[in-house]
Backbone:
């Protein structure tokens, strides 16, 4: 995206999707190649990924020829997103998975924060600091994947807000996106503590339907913003995305 020369807001497009480890619903089909093509067609500036595999020996042996020789997040980054960061959240004998952020712009630094609760499912918050050309201050991005239990999600969002208070200056833009697993619609109220507003809720009255992919009913995924000038949800081609993963992605245009 070109840098504005007239002082107008710098526009940033973002997309978040739970990749379901590279498989369609119920693991029927390995779809990572199709997902990469869909991402390339959407061409956002920043991509937030959840449940992306860093390594999985068993799957690699079962899908010889199709399984990439590099990590899934590197494969998806391809040539469009020059910078990427990965936060490993869950480790098992065959490999590991976590969150990743792909960026067209330099990632100045990143850190993964473990927010797993009481030894249950591994969950993390991947915090990246981006340098966007034409914008004076860093842009903070946090990729989120919260737990399945409501009490765990509440604790994880409180930890998220503590992270924001500690590590994100109030005058610097912040984008938070990912799979909140928020089927009970509690996240918007809790995220007020972070000073963040949800893109779809503020513009359309409620979060987007994202799960299950073919017939979305539950509103599980979110994009939150703080200290930006404006934002707008972006439509995606539902027929394309409904065949990929078990979540449909959501996307937005952010004016910094």
Residues:
């Amino acid at each position: 995206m070109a840098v504005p020369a007239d002082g107008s807001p710098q526009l940033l497009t973002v997309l978040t999707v739970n990749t379901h480890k590279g498989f369609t619903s119920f693991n029927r089909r390995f779809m990572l190649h199709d997902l990469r093509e869909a991402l390339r067609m959407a061409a956002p500036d920043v991509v937030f990924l959840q449940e992306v595999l860093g390594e999985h020996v068993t799957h690699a042996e079962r899908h010889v020829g199709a399984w990439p020789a590099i990590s899934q997040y590197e494969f998806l980054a391809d040539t469009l997103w020059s910078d990427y960061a990965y936060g490993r959240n869950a480790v098992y004998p065959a490999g590991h998975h976590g969150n990743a952020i792909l960026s067209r712009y330099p990632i100045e630094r990143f850190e993964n924060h473990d927010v797993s609760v009481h030894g249950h499912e591994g969950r993390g918050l991947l915090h990246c600091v981006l340098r966007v050309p034409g914008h004076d201050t860093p842009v903070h991005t946090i990729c989120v994947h919260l737990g399945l239990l409501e009490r765990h999600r509440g604790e994880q969002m409180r930890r998220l807000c503590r992270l924001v208070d500690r590590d994100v200056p109030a005058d610097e833009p912040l984008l938070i996106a990912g799979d909140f697993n928020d089927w009970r619609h509690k996240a918007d109220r809790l995220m007020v503590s972070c000073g963040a507003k949800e893109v779809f809720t503020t513009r359309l009255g409620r979060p987007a339907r994202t799960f299950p992919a073919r017939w979305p009913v539950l509103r599980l995924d979110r994009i939150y913003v703080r200290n930006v000038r404006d934002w707008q949800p972006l439509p995606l081609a539902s027929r394309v995305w409904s065949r990929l993963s078990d979540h449909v992605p959501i996307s937005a245009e952010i004016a910094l």
DSSP finds seven helices and twelve strands in the chain. The chain has one domain: 11-255.
